[in-house]
Amino acid sequence: MQQNDGMTLIVKTVTRISVWMILLYGIYIIFHGHLSPGGGFAGGVIIALAFLNVLLAYGRKFTSDWLNISFLHDLESASATLFLVIGILGISLGGAFLANFITKGELFALLSAGTILPLNIIIGIKVGMSLFLVVWVLAGTKIVKGE
Amino acid sequence: MIVYLLCFVLLLVGLFGVLTKRDLIKIILSIGILGYAVNLLLILFAYRKDSVYPILAKGKEVAQMVDPLPQALVLTSIVIELGTTAMLVALAIKLFEKYQTFDISQIRRLKG
């Protein structure tokens, strides 16, 4: 671990512990989107913040080794397509765009509310990846120091 | 009534920043404050006294709820604000690359 890359050792150690908790919290918010406040967008933002934590603490080079950036890019594009696929499946099986075609389950159960849960997961991936990639691209701009 | 006035004061704070500040980053932050004031106003319009949040939870009795429509609207508005802010920051970085400054009084000539 190079000392001059990223922030100090204290920040790196805290980030190493806390990033998994932040990721877990984001996944929790996404999975309970149909039961409690939250959902795909809020959980996706929290997941993006977990990755940004690593980017801020460890620097750009470590993050590009740790995460496969081009894979994240593919994941972001694929999630939009998956949303469309579920919407068109609603046309063929349910009669309208985004109509529910799987069982609604029991009220207040985790696996309930039909297609809302998979759609929330897809939105969470989309928002998380795109928000992280926006800041990744903005942080990668080479800026010459001003006079 | 006082909350609407305070919300308007927040809007004026954002407008003050947009009109008087010279730093591009401060202008972007002021545009953010303007957006927050508008979002807050929409949420305040939907608020009813002594009513609960519009989510049916387990073991919760059905009571008088606030209007959920502006809340869904504001969520969309927040997303769009995020996109516009990212674009403004990208434009500010491009301007800095070209003019080496964030001061808008220095950015006046076509250069390069």
TrEMBL record, chain A:
The keyword Calcium does not apply. The keyword Iron-sulfur does not apply. The chain crosses the membrane at residues 17-35, 41-59, 80-102, 108-139. It is a multi-pass membrane protein. Residues 10-131 form the Na+/H+ antiporter MnhB subunit-related protein domain. It is found in: Cell membrane. Pfam families: MnhB. One of its GO terms (cellular component) is plasma membrane. InterPro entries: CPA3_antiporter_subunitB (IPR050622), MnhB (IPR007182). Keywords: Cell membrane, Membrane, Transmembrane, Transmembrane helix. Belongs to the CPA3 antiporters (TC 2.A.63) subunit B family. This is Na+/H+ antiporter MnhB subunit-related protein domain-containing protein. It comes from Ignavibacterium album.
UniProtKB/TrEMBL annotation, chain B:
It comes from Ignavibacterium album. Belongs to the CPA3 antiporters (TC 2.A.63) subunit C family. It is found in: Cell membrane. It comes from the Bacteria. InterPro entries: CPA3_antiporter_subunitC, NUOK/Mnh_C1-like. It holds the Pfam family Oxidored_q2. The lineage of its organism: Bacteria, Pseudomonadati, Ignavibacteriota, Ignavibacteria, Ignavibacteriales. The chain crosses the membrane at residues 27-47. This is Cation:proton antiporter. It is a multi-pass membrane protein. Keywords: Cell membrane, Membrane, Transmembrane, Transmembrane helix. One of its GO terms (cellular component) is plasma membrane.
